[in-house]
Amino acid sequence: MRTTTIPTILLLLGVTMAPAPAFGQETFTYVGVAACGKCHKTEKIGNQLAIWEGTKHSKAFESLSTPVADSIALAKGLTTKAADSKECRECHTTGGPDSGVDAKEGVGCEACHNAGSGYRVLKIMKDKPTAVEKGLRTFADAAAIEAQCRTCHNERSPTAKEFDFKERWEKIKHLRPVE
C-alpha cells in the first residue's frame, strides 16, 4: 500500500503552503485612481488628481506601447512586447501586472500610497493613524519619498538616467494644504 504524504493531502484539499496574513492582519486591494480621485480633486484638499493627470506617471503605461519601448524590451532579452512584459509593468503600472488595476492608469496613487481598499472611506482618511493602520503609506520626510521613487527610478531600468529627486519632486508633488 502506498503512503500518502501530508503535503499531497493538503494539495488535494486545495490548501497551499503560501503564507497567509498574520492573525488579525488585513489584506488590502487596489481601488484605482478613479476611487482616489473622487475626493482628491478639489483645490481645498490639494487637487492631487489634476496634478497626477499632468505628470508622466499618468502616461507610464502608454510609454510601453511604442515601437521604441518594444525595441528596448527586445534588447534587454525580453520575449514579449514591453506592454505585456512583467518586468516593465512592475514600474509602469500601479501594483504591477497582477494588481487588478487597469494598466492604462499608469502609475497611480496606490503605487506609492499602497492599496486603498482599507483607507478609501472619508471617515478613515480623516483619521490619519487609522488610515495608516488600514494600509495608507505616508512619508516622514523628503528622504522617505525619495527612497520610494528610487524603487523604480534606478539603474535596473534600461532607460535610466540621472535621477535628480528635487527636480522631479517639483513636477509631481501633491501635498495637502495646511488646514
Explain what the structure shows.
With 179 residues, this protein is mainly α. The chain folds into two domains: 26-138, no CATH class; 139-170, no CATH class. Helices cover 36% and strands 0% of the residues. It has helices at residues 6-12, 33-37, 48-53, 67-75, 86-92, 109-113, 122-125, 128-133, 142-149, 165-172.
Give a quick precis of the structure:
Helix content is 36%, strand content 0%. By secondary structure, the chain is an all-alpha fold. It has two domains: 26-138, no CATH class; 139-170, no CATH class.
Summary tags:
single chain; 179 residues; mainly alpha; 2 domains; 10 helices; globular; disordered N terminus
List the helices and strands and how they pair.
Elements: H1 6-12, H2 33-37, H3 48-53, H4 67-75, H5 86-92, H6 109-113, H7 122-125, H8 128-133, H9 142-149, H10 165-172
Number of domains: 2
Strand content: under 5%
Instruction: Tell me the overall shape.
Output: globular
The number of helical segments is: 10
Compute the separation of the termini in Å: 74 Å
Instruction: Compute the CA-based radius of gyration.
Output: 20 Å
State the total count of DSSP E strands.
0
Overall pLDDT level: 86
The poorly predicted ranges are 1-23
What can be said about the biggest beta sheet? Answer: none
**What structural class do helix, strand and pairing data support?**
mainly alpha
Oligomer: single chain
- H/E element sequence: HHHHHHHHHH
Helix content: 25-40%
